């Protein structure tokens, strides 16, 4: 996977989060999108951004633990979010140097 794949996945995640109206994670993912839009893949800063994005998946209370809920329980968007999170993790890992 490449930088454009990571950006595409982040944009898809943003769409899901906006549908679910999750303001906290929208802001965090938007910051990642901005970083990936401006960085050259050949720079050390790009690798720092990759590692920073991977931190979304580490520990309790992170993006990995997010469950989208509605008044009826788990939101329908949760399935799509889980798929996209997995894709993002794999794409980020593939870009590590």
Q: How does this structure look, described?
A:
With 97 residues, the protein is mostly helical. It has one domain. Helix content is 66%, strand content 4%. The chain is built from 4 helices and 2 strands; from the N terminus they run αααββα. Helix 1 runs antiparallel to helix 2. The longest helix is centred in the C-terminal third of the chain and has 19 residues. The relative contact order is 0.19.
Protein topology:
Blueprint: H1 3-20, H2 23-38, H3 44-54, E1 69-70, E2 73-74, H4 77-95
Antiparallel strand pairs: 1-2
Helix pairs in contact: 1-2, 1-4, 3-4
Overview in brief:
With 97 residues, the protein is mainly alpha-helical.
Strand order of the largest sheet: 1-2
Number of domains: 1
**Termini gap:** 13 Å
Spans of at least 5 consecutive residues with low confidence: none
* Radius of gyration, CA atoms, in whole angstroms: 13 Å
Helix content: 55-70%
Number of strands: 2
Figure out the total of helices. 4
What sequence of helices (H) and strands (E) makes up the elements? HHHEEH
Main sheet characteristics? 2 strands, antiparallel
Residue share in β-strands: under 5%
